[in-house]
Each structure stands twice: as C-alpha cells, then as structure tokens.
Write a structure and sequence with these properties.
- This is KtrAB potassium uptake system, integral membrane component KtrB.
- It is a multi-pass membrane protein.
- It is found in: Cell membrane.
- It comes from uncultured Synechococcales cyanobacterium.
- The structure is a single chain.
- With 444 residues, the protein is mainly α.
- The chain has one domain.
- The chain contains 17 helices and 2 strands.
- Strands 1-2 form a two-stranded antiparallel sheet.
- Helix 15 packs across helix 16.
- The longest helix is centred in the N-terminal third of the chain and has 48 residues.
C-alpha cells in the first residue's frame, strides 16, 4: 500500500460512503430511495469538487441531502489526506514518517517539516475565507429570502465557491444575480483565492504582516508565488477581454445588457473556469469562440496546493518557458532568473500528455455512446469534468448511463491527478543502476 494508492483509495472510499448516504430516503426531497447512478454521480462530483449535476440540487435533494453534499465538497476541497490528518490532530494522534510523506505528496510540498502546522493553517485559512464569504453573501440573500433561508444559501454558496465546486441551490445557477455587484465580487474572490494555492496565500499573509509591522527585512517571494500570481492575472485578463468581445453582440448572453453588466458577466465567466463552475449567463447559448476559449481556461485550471483542478498554472508556465528556451536556442529553462530543474520539466510534460490522453479517451467514449451530441458540447463537458469545473452546455442530465460513468471516471482522474493515479497503478519507481548511451533523433 503505497502513498499514492492510499490517497486514490481514500477518495474512492469517501465517494462510496457519499453514494450510499445520498441513496437513502432522507437525502431526497421526495423521501424516496435515490437512483444509484444519480447518487454516484453527485457524490463523485462533490468529492471531486466539480459541480456537474444530473438533477437540480436545490429541489431534488432535501436539506439533509444538501448538507451532505456540502460536507463532501468540504472534504474534497481539503483533500483526503488533509481532511484525515486534521481529524487525527483533533483526536490527538501523533504523526509517523509515513503520514508526513503522504502529506508531502498530497500537498506537493518540497519538505516534510511542519506538516501538522501546515494542516492547521490550511483549515484555519479555509474557515476564515468561508465565514467571511457567508457574512458578505448574507447581505445578498437575506433581504430576499429572510435570515434563516438566506443564511443557508450564503453558507452553501460560500463553501462551494471557496472549494471551487460550483454547486448552486438555484435552478439557473447564479444567472438571477448577474446584476448584483456584491455577489460578482465575493464569489469570484473566493474562487480565485481558493484556486491559487495555500502556499501563495501564506506568503501573501507574511508579506502583508511584515509591511504592517514595518519590518526592515521583507520576505522574498518564491518562484511558485510569482508564477502562480502572474499567470492567474494574465489568464483572468485575457479571459475577460475575449469573452466580452466574443459575446458582445450575442443577444442570448451579453447583447441585451448595459456596459456595466456586460463587464461584470464577462469577468465572472472568466473567473469560473478556474474550476469553479458557477455561471451568470447561459453557457449553452455562448458562441463557439467563447466555448473554445473557456475550454482552454478550464484545461489550465488553478494553481497547485489549492482546491482547483486542471493541469495548473505552473505546468503551463514551465511548458511555455521550455518552448521559449528551445526557440531561442538555449539549453536552460529560466523563470524569473531561476533555472527550472529537468525533473520538473519532465513532470510538466507527463502531466500534459496524461491530461490530453484522458480528455481524448473520455471524449471518444462519450461520442460513441451519445453520437447525437455536438463535438464541441462533448469536448466542453469532458474538459469541464476532468478539470473539476462543472460548467456545462446543458447536456449532463441527458447523457446515457455509459456516458455518465465515463464522466464520473474523468472527474475522479482529474481530482486525484494523472501522475498520482499512474503511480498508484504502477507502484513506486525502483532505482536502476543501468545507464544507456545517448543517441540523437529527429524531433519536430
């Protein structure tokens, strides 16, 4: 039982428990036993913080079922290892070496030092952002639904946004709030900070603390911080401009809005492909240009160490920097005056190839099982599932059972990670003392 197998089986165990509980009559609003496929799909989507749905969450599930979905989202957002480790800390269990190695691999950290403190910081950070989001969203929902219902709506959407899940209790997601300035700032804010990674948030906090205390020596931002923040800003800006221009004349999305609402809606839809899955305009009515742009944003996803999926912003920058080095005839890959090790480049290539292969296989399978669907719709659905986004053009509920099972597997692979899953299947690599001679070949 290797570390990677422990993590992969842990996610499967949580999905299985969630499926069984969602099948029980108390989870549905009708009080009847739930369809096993619906329960399995919803549980997987919640644990993998995707947000894909085959039924309306707000009307199909009871308040207990909605609470269970939210609990699964919280566990999935923290990650299996982080959630179980925090439980062990609460119970007073001491860490052994295996636990520290598992946490290091699950959180993609460079060292095993301070694992317990990191988990406490992650949980505390999550609670701070989620509670802040609840109070702010309460100002949006309470005037319309009252304090009790408004508090539940604020809690559900705040936790869902921070964990980049995209589950909503409204049939039209958040389309009814496309003109709410506060909601269009709070939800994207939670999504961005939830997807950018805990390490980035910790560094930003330390920098702000030093500035507040006016310490003479400020911290030096890590390469991970610089890459994650700059790439995120670039993608958000590029996505907002592209969606605004592509949908400006589309009467079904932005065409009938005034300029302020158009900018808010374009901004919101540029943020949600960070793997959140909320929407304030009809995704199925968007132009092919916007759909394809959104597919690209979803495929990249967020940053390592956060609640987001996708190949991650750091992987994109390593690959683009490697391409730039080749075009300039250099043998070193540099980022912000730092050399990228060859092992990291190989890992980025492995993530890209594995992710593309997963998307191709899933798209092919769903195209075979549901041939009546348009290719762009199938590709959008698959990338959304793999990147744990949850955005859909409206075809999820109508998929056949084999297609739903393929999408369930895609969501699982996207959440645990391609490399981690392959490591679980193949086992830990064994060192070899054999070295083979080099030989050149034609490439490109």
């Amino acid at each position: 039982m290797t570390v990677s197998r422990t993590i992969c089986l842990g996610f499967l165990a949580v999905i299985a428990v969630g499926t069984l509980l969602l099948m029980l009559p108390f989870s549905t609003s009708s009080g009847m036993w739930n369809d096993p496929i619906v329960a399995l799909f919803t549980s997987t989507s919640a644990v993998c913080v995707t947000g894909h749905i085959v039924v309306d969450t707000g009307t199909y599930f009871s308040i207990w079922g909605q609470g269970l979905i939210l609990a699964l989202v919280q566990i999935g957002g923290l990650g299996y290892m982080s959630a179980t480790t925090f439980l062990f800390l609460v119970l007073g269990r001491r860490f052994n070496l295996r636990d520290k190695i598992a946490l290091q691999q699950a959180l993609d950290r460079t060292s095993m030092q301070g694992s317990a403190q990191v988990i406490r910081s992650i949980v505390a950070t999550s609670l701070i952002f989620e509670i802040s989001g609840i109070f702010l969203l309460l100002l949006v929902f309470a005037p319309e639904y009252g304090l009790d219902r408004g508090l539940w709506l604020a809690t559900f959407h705040s936790v869902s946004a921070w964990n980049n899940a995209g589950f909503s209790l409204f049939p039209d997601n958040l389309i009814g709030y496309q003109s709410s300035l506060l909601l269009n700032l709070v939800i994207p804010g939670l999504i961005i900070f939830g997807s950018i990674g805990y390490e980035v948030i910790f560094e930003l906090y330390l920098w702000l603390r030093d500035r507040w205390l006016r310490k003479p020596a400020h911290i030096v931002f890590s390469l991970n911080f610089k890459v994650a923040t700059t790439t995120t800003l670039i993608l958000l800006g590029l996505g907002t401009v592209t969606i605004f221009l592509a949908e400006l004349s589309n009467p079904k999305t932005l065409g009938t809005m005034n300029l302020g609402r158009q900018l808010m809606a374009a901004w919101f839809q540029a943020v949600t492909p960070r793997t959140a899955g909320f929407n304030t305009i009809d995704i199925g009515a968007m132009t092919t240009t916007t759909l394809f742009m959104t597919i690209g944003l979803m495929f990249v996803g967020g940053s390592p160490g956060g609640t987001a999926g996708g190949i991650k912003t750091t992987t994109l920058r390593v690959l683009t920097s490697s391409t730039n080095a080749i075009l300039r005839g250099k043998e070193e890959v540099l980022l912000y005056e730092r050399q990228i090790p060859i092992s990291l480049i190989l890992k980025a290539v492995g993530v890209l190839i594995g992710s593309v292969a997963t998307v191709i296989i899933a798209t092919t399978l769903i195209s075979l099982t549901d041939p009546a669907l348009d290719f762009i719709q199938v590709l959008f659905e698959v990338v959304s599932g793999f990147a744990t986004v949850g955005l859909s053009t409206g075809i999820t509920a109508g998929l056949s059972v084999p297609a739903k099972l393929a999408l369930i597997a895609t969501m699982y692979v996207g959440r645990v990670g391609v490399l981690l899953l392959m490591g679980a299947l193949l086992g830990d690599p064994r060192p070899s003392a054999v070295h083979y001679p080099e030989e050149n070949m034609f490439v490109g």
